[in-house]
UniProtKB/TrEMBL annotation:
Family annotation (InterPro entries): dsRBD_dom, RNase_III, RNase_III_dom, RNase_III_sf
EC code(s) of this entry: 3.1.26.3
Recorded family membership: Belongs to the ribonuclease III family.
Domain DRBM: 160-229
Catalytic center residues: D51, E123
Function: Digests double-stranded RNA. Involved in the processing of primary rRNA transcript to yield the immediate precursors to the large and small rRNAs (23S and 16S). Processes some mRNAs, and tRNAs when they are encoded in the rRNA operon. Processes pre-crRNA and tracrRNA of type II CRISPR loci if present in the organism.
Location of the RNase III domain: 5-134
Feature: compositional bias, Basic and acidic residues: 213-233
Signal sequence range: none
Protein name listed in UniProt: Ribonuclease 3
Stretch list, region Disordered: 208-233
Enzyme class: hydrolase
Gene this protein is translated from: rnc
Length: 233
């Protein structure tokens, strides 16, 4: 973990008084489960706390930045900023993906690159930072890491992949598009859903997300990116 401490100090000028908090933030449930005899804590509780402070800080920021925008527009912008894919991107930007502790199975299956895991990691880090340094330090970190991309307009355009997929598939007429939840896992406060999308009974995409809607969007996105051919449906 020394490399992580050095990264935080050099890149963000952050030091933790309680280093166990930081280690917990970077410990995935799969790692803790593989080392049960050591009674290692994992990051799900910190993720819960980090999600709350992130929502607060981003809401405050958007409220002040856009005094004339209605609540609906602000909610859409906030959801884009704090969605799983965005938070995973911030984790990668910070270099956090290098340091998360994963179980062997999760590591082999590509967990280190999975948006769900990296998004949760970012929230867990914010939760640990809140407990160790307080809300102002969290706010300053978010200002440094997240806000420049917000100000660059990165989250202003919302792509509705379900609508886009429907437009592509229905170019030759009506088709039956079906989204089905194939599995769900995780604790109540951090559920993960897997969804598959089919057209006329043919599977064309799969996705994961922390809500059914997010998983459906991810499945539709995968189908669009795979350039599904409507003439073959």
């Amino acid at each position: 973990m020394q490399a992580l401490y050095n990264l935080l100090a050099e890149k963000f000028r952050l030091t933790f008084d309680d280093t166990e908090l930081l280690e917990t933030a970077f410990t995935h449930t799969s790692y803790a489960n593989e080392h049960r005899l050591l009674k290692i804590s994992h990051n799900e509780r910190l993720e819960f706390l980090g999600d709350a402070v992130l929502q607060l800080v981003i809401s405050e920021y958007l409220f002040a930045l856009y005094p004339s925008k209605p609540e609906g527009d602000l909610s859409k912008m906030r959801s884009m900023i704090v969605r799983e894919e965005s938070l995973a991107g911030f984790s990668r930007d910070c270099g956090f993906d290098q340091f998360i502790k994963l179980g062997k199975g999760e590591e082999k299956s590509g967990g280190r690159n999975r948006d769900t895991i990296l998004g949760d990691l970012f929230e867990a880090f914010l939760g640990a930072l809140l407990l160790d340094k307080g809300v102002e330090t969290v706010r300053n970190f978010i200002q440094q890491v997240m806000i420049p991309k917000v100000e660059a307009g990165q989250f202003e355009q919302v792509i509705d992949y379900k609508t886009r997929l429907q437009e592509i598939l229905q170019i030759h007429g009506d088709v039956q598009i079906t989204y089905e939840v194939t599995s769900e896992s995780g604790p109540a406060h951090a559920k993960e859903f897997e969804v598959q999308v089919s057209v006329n009974g043919k599977l064309i995409g799969q996705g994961r997300g922390r809500s059914k809607k997010a998983a459906e969007q991810e499945a539709a996105k995968k189908a669009v990116e795979n350039k599904v051919d409507p003439s073959c449906i």
